[in-house]
């Protein structure tokens, strides 16, 4: 069997053996896996490739319709309608539009009828204000649709067990659509065992994309008005509190670890120079390499804001706006995905150790929150563009035929990654074991 012989050869095994804990997937256990599967990864890849190529011309108008109608932050009505209509037209798929009370979220489900793992894919389709689909989410949408449909085709062809779920997840660009769906119980209700997604970029492909943890919060200080010349001692200066905190943050910045980022801007700086400022406010963002490191950074940042309150007597209020966890890729799934991707030619994803370096980015995504709930992958694929994401040039690139083909190549690799989980239950056991270790703070 291809899969486990490939795992034995793979760097993933040596990585797990080098970690402090030896309780994870290890060579001994993996060596026990026998070459006992009748269906090989090549069989799955051939079928997924053939199937995805056969629907390429149906996926192209879906991608273009989303691209040509850029919609923002829970307002993705055209994208939602287009994708729902498309999934409803596929045989064997049950589609729930406006799922969990979110108008532009949807869930499409394919059940093999045989008990088994539940593999899931996330489709994104939101755009950016003023610069259209400059994050290429139209490509993410068709990649996940293609992968999910190819997986269902292979289930039928090879009589595999389990289910495939496609989650339509709106508002990735700051609205946290996946977090809303997680909180509403969408992933747990459907018993999703793993979740897969992709993202286009201009850097070389990576099966192990890692993103930063991110937190965005509003800070307010409440003071007391007084005549700023005649009786300033009667007032409490909220702006002074905020400036004191801002200066303390500027000092803290020099003492933080690489990858820790603190950003902020003042939205309210008082009413007039001759009134002691009774109200001051701002929006602040902190980022770090991981969720746990972000929590440590946030404590130190909070101390700065409390220092402002302490120094002036103003009352402090902090309100969280949005928090995205870092994305932790599952290496077991990454090995399978990489092997499938590399068999499709053109460019090579390197082995796990190198790919973990290649896949690191300072950007953030709500797929990060998914990666703390179940084994997850975000396959980064390269499209040809002079400009990177969040630039209008990248939006133009995301509309080209070449970018379409790149997205479908990613879809083939993601289809096979999910199918391997359905084919051999030991894959899921190994992926979940790694996931558990990650949650316990080991194996990272
Ligand atoms: Zn983006
Ligand atoms: Zn994006």
From TrEMBL:
Protein name (Swiss-Prot/TrEMBL): Peptidase M20 domain-containing protein 2
Origin: domain of life: Eukaryota
A GO MF term: dipeptidase activity
Domain called Peptidase M20 dimerisation: residue spans: 214-309
Pfam assignment, any one: M20_dimer
PANTHER family hit by this protein: PEPTIDASE M20, PEPTIDASE M20 DOMAIN-CONTAINING PROTEIN 2
InterPro entries per UniProt: Amidohydrolase, Bact_exopeptidase_dim_dom, Peptidase_M20, Peptidase_M20/M20A_hydrolases, Peptidase_M20_dimer, Xaa-Arg_dipeptidase
Record-stated family: Belongs to the peptidase M20A family.
